[in-house]
From TrEMBL:
Its EC number is 1.14.11.2. Belongs to the P4HA family. It is found in: Endoplasmic reticulum lumen. Its cofactor is L-ascorbate. It holds the Pfam family P4Ha_N. This is procollagen-proline 4-dioxygenase. Residues 346-479 form the Fe2OG dioxygenase domain. Gene3D superfamilies: 6.10.140.1460, q2cbj1_9rhob like domain, Tetratricopeptide repeat domain. Its main location: endoplasmic reticulum. It comes from Drosophila yakuba (Fruit fly). One of its GO terms (molecular function) is procollagen-proline 4-dioxygenase activity.
């Protein structure tokens, strides 16, 4: 399923759609900084040498600064001057031009620049931040200070960070939110941390002010202009005034915000009967829902197995897009994914056997095992894992995807729940647990209550392992649930 979209050039590297790839970008930054450090050390040495030269000359000159005649009347001075001009200046000039060690570092640094994220990637990262803010209904000023969903992240956003987000929201006609971010950019503008970026592309304070006012006027009225101007000098935590009506949250947003009712107290037990295997290794089984049928199993995958599953390089993972899912978007980049087919190796076979033991089903060979790593604000829109063979008669042979196994192979400290909006269920990933559900009714018809989505990840590297299984292989194994 999660195949690369044909229109996307295969070589395109996108970092923001997986935390694994972002860690690689951080490594690149570390190397870049090492070269920058070397460059600066050499530069500092050069500057010291030059300063010594300058000091010698100016000190010697000091008492005679205003009287050149007097200075050169002294033969030692005259001789010194002549010799310096003849010998030292040309040397000095070529010393200035001499790149020496610098050139090596500069060349290395420009190689890293070739590996920096492209415009698509930047757009994805902005989209991720946008999602984190609006899905969780965060206050922009809290988010900028690293306060999200009651957690302190221990870092804050710089003025250029806030500006980038403001410009992005403005372009998407989200004017009130853009205004909040312009105000934040304005308020942190003079913090020392921002000096460098500001030197590099120097947005003017007046420019930010102007954008704030324009954003406010886009959905506001000139009559309120004086109020808007007041807002600009207020603490950025103060709410804006004259705001339009808020959109009410979607079911998914409600679920992500933790507003679904707690799971009803269903059965929680040790299952030792599904298959003979269970008698020796009983399972911690939690019934999450009866309609649709969903179970959660605890401690079903070992840390050593997880370490092996998540040890992947960039080349091994591809960009998973929505084009093969039942989502409204034609193509949307979701996450980085590695799919192994039947020959996934020993570990895949072990895991598939374990799924068979847990579910009592025959796991077949027709669908594949996918390992997914989500990125910055990584989100998976509402979709179904079934395709509905009534709409896809070409699949009549193999049948629809009867069930899904979703192994959580990392903890997600903040955000990243799996949501079943119609069933009002939210499941927070827990490393080592697995969710198991039936996508189809007993008669093989799709069950729309199994449509699901993944909330944006806020903190953590969200990894899952997914396998779906086809219906007809199970004809004689699957019990008819009532
Ligand atoms: O990551 C998740 O929680 C769900 C993944 C999923 O829905 C899928 O791969 O079809
Ligand atoms: Fe799914």
């Amino acid at each position: 399923k999660n195949t690369e979209n044909d229109n996307t050039p295969v070589q395109e590297v996108i970092y923001s759609n997986s935390i694994r790839a972002l860690s690689e970008l951080r490594e690149i930054e570390n190397s870049y900084m090492e070269h920058l450090y070397n460059y600066v050390s050499s530069l500092r040495q050069k500057i010291q040498t030059l300063r010594i030269f300058i000091n010698c000359i100016t000190q010697e000159n000091l008492p005679h600064k205003l009287d050149q005649y007097k200075y050169v009347s002294n033969p030692l001075n005259s001789f010194g001057l002549l010799r310096r001009a003849h010998q030292d200046w040309p040397k000095l000039t070529s010393y200035l031009r001499d790149q020496g060690n610098f050139i090596v570092d500069l060349e290395e640094m420009s190689k890293f620049v070739n590996r920096t994220p492209n415009a698509h990637d930047m757009e994805e990262a902005l989209l991720g931040m946008d999602r984190i803010e609006h899905f969780y209904n965060l206050k922009s000023s809290d988010m900028a200070q690293g306060l999200v969903a009651g957690q302190k992240l221990g870092s804050r956003m710089s003025a250029p960070d806030c500006m980038a987000l403001a410009d992005y929201l403005y372009k998407r006609s989200e004017f009130e939110r853009a205004a909040e971010w312009y105000r934040l950019a304005f308020s942190v503008f003079n913090k020392p941390k921002n000096n460098m970026s500001l030197k590099l592309y120097a947005p003017k304070r007046e420019e930010i002010q102007k954008m704030f006012v324009i954003s406010r006027l886009q959905e506001g009225s000139v009559d309120n202009l004086s109020d808007y101007l007041k807002e600009l000098s207020q603490d950025p935590g103060t709410s804006l005034v004259h705001l339009g009506p808020r959109k009410s949250p979607t079911a998914i947003e409600q679920g992500c915000r933790g507003n679904f009712p707690p799971h009803p107290q269903l059965v929680c037990r040790y299952n030792s009967t599904t298959t003979p295997f269970m008698r020796i290794a009983p399972l911690k089984e939690e019934e999450i829902s009866k309609e649709p049928l969903i179970w959660l199993y605890h401690d079903v995958i070992y840390d050593s197995e997880i370490a092996q599953l998540t040890n992947l390089t960039r080349e091994e993972m591809i960009l998973g897009t929505t084009n093969n899912y039942t989502t409204p978007d034609r193509v949307n980049r979701l996450f980085h994914v590695k799919v192994t087919n039947d020959d996934g190796g020993q570990l895949d076979r072990t895991l598939v056997n374990r799924m068979a033991d847990i579910s009592g089903l025959d796991m077949g060979n027709t669908t594949s095992l996918a390992r997914i790593n989500y990125g910055l604000g990584g989100y998976f829109q509402e979709h179904s894992d079934y395709v509905d063979i009534k709409l896809h008669p070409e699949l009549i042979e193999e049948g629809d995807r009867l069930m899904t196994f979703l192994f959580y192979i990392s903890d997600v400290p903040v955000g990243g729940a799996t949501i079943f909006p119609a069933a009002k269920l939210a499941i927070q990933p827990k490393k080592g647990s697995a969710l198991f559900w039936y996508n189809l009714h007993n008669n093989g018809d799709p069950n729309p209550l199994t449509r699901h989505a993944v909330c944006p990840t806020i903190v953590g590297s969200r990894w899952v392992l997914v396998k779906s299984m086809l219906n007809y292989e199970q004809m004689f194994k699957k019990p008819c649930y009532k």
